[in-house]
Input
Amino acid sequence: MTDIVSAVPRLERRPGLRRTGSVARLWHKADFSTRICLSLFALVLLVTIFGPMLAPFHPDAQTLLARLRPPLGFERAMPAHPLGTDQLGRDILSRTLHGLQLTMIIALIGSLISLVIGVTLGVIAGYAPGKLGSAIMALVDVQIAVPFTLIALLVIAIFGNSLPVLIGVIGMSGWEVYARIVRAQVLSVSRQPFVEAAIAAGASHSRILLKHVLPNVASPIIVVWTMTFSAVILLESTLSFLGLGVQPPTATLGSMVGLGRDYLASSPWIAVVPSLAIMFVSLLVLLIGDWLRDALDVKLK
Output
């Protein structure tokens, strides 16, 4: 028994389990292309925070004499509107900056809600298997089987399409992915010798979870969150495109694409500009998530 207990510190300090969260260490391991992606994403965050302050116009300001003006470089373009105007004469650049901020806020809060729900249920199902764990996994199977669009339509039809409801709907999506992955990781980690040694030493369940289990499943959680964050952005854009998200005149990237779909033939820039912003942010997050998956994988070290 003494040998097992004394092995706890040595086993907990295995490389890659508790020291892979160092930002400086990850930065030094990144290659040139990954550093470019990280720098661009940092720029996107700065634009998200300070972009509305730099917007040349109010996002809802209408100038009917300047409606449907194309971006610079095309005929009838106006220097005051470098990305053009929409059908009501509103500046596309200003609306994109404001829409990016609101879209990122909705996606961030919604993804964090999904993460908390999924991780909590996954830890319970993995650490306390039995009827409770089986019930949680049955709920996960139901969530996977039912199309989420139907759930979103039902919730919005009952509670309305306000901003808190939209965030709650997005928070209900994707939690099953966290639950399944965390459950599998917890089942694996809870059978490791250092966890068995902690149990033999009389450690409480809360201490085992906080000190031994969760730190060793943090890396997969971070990777899954970065990989699903782009999907949350696309979900918000899809709901707004269908008219189920934030209602006009408030600008989000998805609602801008939805409003511009009727002008794709004559004024495509109304929908193309916010679509490119969605694609750019989603691609950056996916590339960073793919890099984190390799950087935090203990098996590749």
Summary: Residues 1-21 have pLDDT under 50 and may be disordered. Residues 102 and 252 are 6 Å apart (CA to CA). The domain at 30-55+89-300 is CATH 1.10.3720.10 (MetI-like fold). The radius of gyration is 23 Å.
